[in-house]
Amino acid sequence: MPPRARSLLLAVLVASLPACATFRSYDEELRATLTQVAAGDVDGAVATLERNNRGERKDLLYFMERGELERLRSRYAPSTDAWMQATDRVAQWEAAALADPSRLAGSLASVTLNDKSRPYEGHDYEKVMLTTRIALNHLARGDWDAARVAIRQTHEREAVIARLREAEVEQIQAEAEQRGAGTRIEDLNGYPVETIDNPEVNALRNSYQSAISHYLAGFVYEALGEQSLAAPGYRQAIELRPDTPVLEEALAGLDTRMAQQDDASTDVLFLIETGLAPARVSRQFTLPIPINRELVLVSVSFPVVHTPLAPFLPNSLRFADGATWPTAAVTSIDAMARRALRDEMPGIMLRGFVRSLSKAVAQYQAQRAAAQRRRAGDGSAGAALDVAAIALMIGSMVTESADERTWRSLPATVLIARGKLPRGSHTVTLPTPAGERSVQVHVQGRHAFIALRLIGDRLFVEAPDAPPDQTKEE
Question: What DSSP designation does 466 have?
Fold first, then answer.
């Protein structure tokens, strides 16, 4: 085989190695982990996560998933520790991106191989949910002051994300115009546009602000007696999720609640999380790329949001005395994940275009060299170069894979219910797909927070433990 043909084949083999060795399928890995969670085997899910992440340097996604699994085991300290490590990584990337906005559009490796070669930076909604969930951990331990700190960090992170996204949009638009690349998802033939462009997704202001994060801020500030900060939290929640009575009632009744004397009852906020955040799956599209008036077929992969069955939404909580509280869905993380992908697609398509063009040029050059050899009477060299061109095509298909990484253990939908309960222990019953489930909870003080997580027919409870003497009131 001529030296040029050997060089081309070697390039294909080298490029294919990362796809075989390190380009894992995160969707498959997390599917196995979450199947164990749905079966109630959270310990086994943690073990599976560890087996899939044996390297010494764990990435951001590992700490996100590990923190969620530890939270399901009611191990709030290690859960918070994992999430704090994730927060540190996000903060480092944000600082670097603010100092050098060129990092936003993508790295050289993602252009030559695929987006999986990029360090995982987290999607915008994940970064905000990270600090929100740290606040939930503090509330589960009854530490309202620490929850307040995490709430403030949530607001700060939203402001940083807004600045970075504005810079990214300008950068991608300029780069796309310079290269003549299309970045409209509607122009990608065969892409299921309806999965990320629908009324629910379009109703969102952006992919990272959520009613639950701001309502939680209002509730925490109210519990700490900071009415001037509680009101903006509730008001922002209403703006993000309009026409939701439970949100409007929180703001409308704030003055009255703040003025009330202690009546030996507890204002309780129940957070009900159900389902799992949607997966991203890699799907290939074959694009014809024009090179010197010849069409070269190149495989390009883009992420598609997998559409699961709609999560079960419990419509009420029932208590032992027969009282029922209605629940209200206030945040769809499923929709936020779809909006995030829609916002990210121009950058993903730009990097895909650059990869496609470079691969098409390489294939065209190999095919042209083969034709020249045959015209010169060197049939064997031409055949070898034909093989090299085919190998380049196969290599581009092997290395071309969309980035499936996303925080899968987040809930799909967040609901809330709020009311007053006598201080002490209570039995709460929640409908599930497999019938009703009942749990014991304890409330004390003027405000209490209890989280219920429904995955499949498994119900997990995140709440402060009852004191040794549950009959003693404050």
Answer: P
- For the record, the structure tokens of 23 come out as 């380009």
Number of neighbouring beta carbons within 10 Å of residue 154: 25
pLDDT digits (tens, 9 = 90+) for 183-223: 888 878 789 999 999 999 999 999 999 999 999 999 999 99
Tell me the C-alpha distance between 442 and 243, whole Å.
32
Helix axes 76-99, 60-72, angle to 10 degrees: 150
Query: How far, CA to CA in Å, does 317 sit from each of 58, 88, 104, 410?
Result: 39, 37, 44, 22
Q: Where are the alpha helices (DSSP H) in 180-281?
A: 199-202, 211-223, 227-240, 245-252, 254-259
In terms of Cβ atoms closer than 10 Å to its own Cβ (0-12, 13-18, 19+), residue 302 is: buried
The predicted model scores a pTM of: 0.86
pLDDT tens profile 346-370: 989 888 888 777 776 766 666 666 6
Q: What is d(CA 405, CA 26) in angstroms, rounded to the nearest whole number?
A: 6
Return the closest-CA partner of residue 154 out of 72, 243, 237, 71. 237
